[in-house]
Write a structure and sequence with these properties.
This protein is α+β, with helices and mostly antiparallel strands. The chain has a domain at 435-465. The protein is built from 13 helices and twelve strands. It has helices spanning 27-54, 59-67, 86-100, 102-120, 126-134, 253-290, 304-334, 355-385, 391-398, 400-403, 408-421, 435-443, 447-465, and strands at 6-7, 10-11, 142-145, 162-166, 169-179, 187-193, 204-210, 215-216, 232-241, 246-247, 292-293, 298-299. It has a four-stranded mixed beta sheet. Strands 4-5-9-8 form a four-stranded antiparallel beta sheet, with no helix packed on it. It binds flavin-adenine dinucleotide.
Length: 466
């Protein structure tokens, strides 16, 4: 295998492999990476420009990826997949975002998250197993539909959704404010409150929804970047589903989040942000080494200021990549190389033990991409401001990193709060009372205020009992 990075048969014009942590990949993964870079050069990058201009969903890219077996990347070999690892998933997403199409990388991230949720609970479920076997053959794109219009980025809190028992199966109602590949995916993993929900929002269940049960309006999709992503609202309005459309047992939602959906979303979306950062560094290298100022006879890349910009961007981005690949290895280590067979035991949750590390990974990658895209724009001057150079497109795409849930505000809160006050203080489902706040507020009331509060509480209580 060549150690020179090629692009359409020529030497690649951006950073070479000497700036990539190739040592984390085995030979098969390096070969896959090389084929993927060639695919990006042949079609995926051109498709990205078209997707961005015309809001086209990147199905063409998925069709090409299916030929490399990438839709079944995580699916065990005995089910016809590539049986690959977390490390490989991180490499594939980063490669697609960097050389090909960030929108495709994000749609693929959601596909891998949905695939992970299905793999976690496919063992005795013929419906899930059938889909997993056909991912590449039939180009079956999956996605995750979690974010709720009433709870914003708190995607683990689906107030507007519910499920009911219906004969031998289920009736599912889902309202989602954002769903990548919405209206274009072939299958959706959605989360709702459980069929026997009694007011405890940690009681969540996951369902597999077929494309024809989903209402969407792709024509209304609009966004600053990731325009091929088609992350519009969707609705599932009382669709009746068979028994095995339930993914795992009822009440499995929190386990599914912590063990499958969150670890894969955080790992792969971080790889997408790193890929975008690398993509703009590549462009900046090409531009600044080719443009000359004839008055002084210097290329832009000859100015120490520009060298400093690029040097710092490479170091910051490689620190973020090192973190992603270190955590991918940690996930591989605790799962015996992403072996899904351990999950016949429903309580086997090895990835969940690393979730607070995955929060840190996403925070760093999303923070870095915003900084690096900005600095590479500065390094390329006014030419970078023009869409033709493509820095502008990557810059807009990278802006999604910070705001995608869990947002970076939420993540730094999680890490700061959990480290200072313990994990219990995170209180995802708003169940524990903060007595310090309560006592402090009550302390401010005079005697009349306390009496009115007591009367209100008693009246509320009476109403509840009645
Ligand atoms: C391109 C794109 C693709 C997406 N794809 C999907 C998808 O496939 N599936 C899916 O389920 N969702 C998806 N989302 C939704 C995403 O995960 C978030 O739910 C969404 O971006 C939140 O937007 P909002 O306006 O509701 O933010 P809000 O939640 O209203 O946030 C507004 C501000 O409040 C801050 N904030 C919120 N909660 C707290 C808190 N507890 N503490 C401190 N600050 C807080 C936020 O950080 C932010 O600064 C996507 C979003 C984007 C941009």
């Amino acid at each position: 295998m060549s150690s020179t990075k090629t692009w359409g048969g020529e030497e690649f014009w951006g950073l070479g492999f000497e700036w990539d942590p190739q040592w984390v990949l085995n030979d098969a993964q390096k070969a896959l990476q090389a084929r993927l870079i060639e695919l990006c050069a042949a079609t995926m990058r051109d498709n990205a420009i078209e997707s961005d201009k015309t809001y086209t969903y990147p199905r063409k890219n998925f069709e090409a990826m299916a030929e490399l077996g990438l839709l079944g990347l995580l699916v065990p070999k005995e089910l016809g997949g590539l049986g690959e690892s977390h490390t490989c998933a991180a490499m594939v997403v980063e490669t697609i975002a960097r050389y090909g199409c960030p929108s495709t990388a994000m749609c693929y991230t959601m596909h891998l998250g949905a695939t992970a949720a299905a793999l976690l609970r496919h063992h005795d479920n013929a419906r899930l197993t059938d889909i997993l076997k056909r991912l590449d053959k039939d180009v079956l794109i999956g996605t995750l539909s979690y974010s709720d219009p009433e709870t914003g980025s708190h995607f683990w809190y689906p107030i507007s959704s519910k499920a009911e028992r219906h004969g031998d199966g289920w009736k599912v109602f889902k309202k989602a404010s954002w769903t990548t590949s919405g209206g274009f995916a072939d299958w959706y993993i959605v989360q709702t409150t459980s069929p026997d929900f009694a007011g405890d929002y940690s009681d969540l269940s996951c369902f597999l929804i077929p494309a024809d049960a989903v209402k969407s309006d792709p024509s209304s999709w609009d966004g600053l970047g990731l325009r091929g992503n088609q992350s519009g609202p969707i609705e599932v309005n009382g669709v009746v589903l068979p028994k095995d459309a339930l993914v795992g047992p009822t009440g499995d939602g929190a386990r599914s989040n912590d063990e499958a959906v969150d670890p894969f979303f955080l790992l792969c979306s971080s790889s997408c942000w790193n890929g975008i950062a690398l993509g703009v560094i590549d462009i900046a290298k090409r531009h600044t080494t080719r443009k000359t100022h004839n008055d002084v006879g210097m290329r832009v890349a000859d100015y120490p200021t520009i060298q400093d910009y690029v040097g710092e961007a490479i170091m910051d981005t490689n620190a973020s990549r090192a973190f992603v690949f270190q955590m991918a290895k940690a996930l591989d280590d605790v799962t015996n190389g992403c072996d899904w067979s351990v999950h016949t035991d429903l309580d086997a949750l090895p990835r969940a033990t690393l979730l607070h590390w995955m929060w840190q990974v996403k925070f760093m990658a999303a923070k870095n991409v915003a900084h690096v895209t900005d600095k590479m724009l500065h390094a390329c001057g006014g030419t970078g401001f023009r869409p033709a150079l493509q820095i502008e497109r990557y810059l807009r795409d990278g802006k999604a990193g910070w705001v995608m849930g869990p947002t970076n505000e939420v993540l730094r809160q999680f890490v700061g709060k959990a480290s200072l006050l313990g994990f219990g203080s995170l209180d995802y489902w708003n169940k524990s009372v903060n007595h310090r706040v309560l006592d402090n507020e009550i302390k401010k009331l005079d005697a009349e205020g306390r009496r009115q509060l007591a009367e209100k509480l008693l009246a509320d209580d009476k109403q509840k009992v009645a």
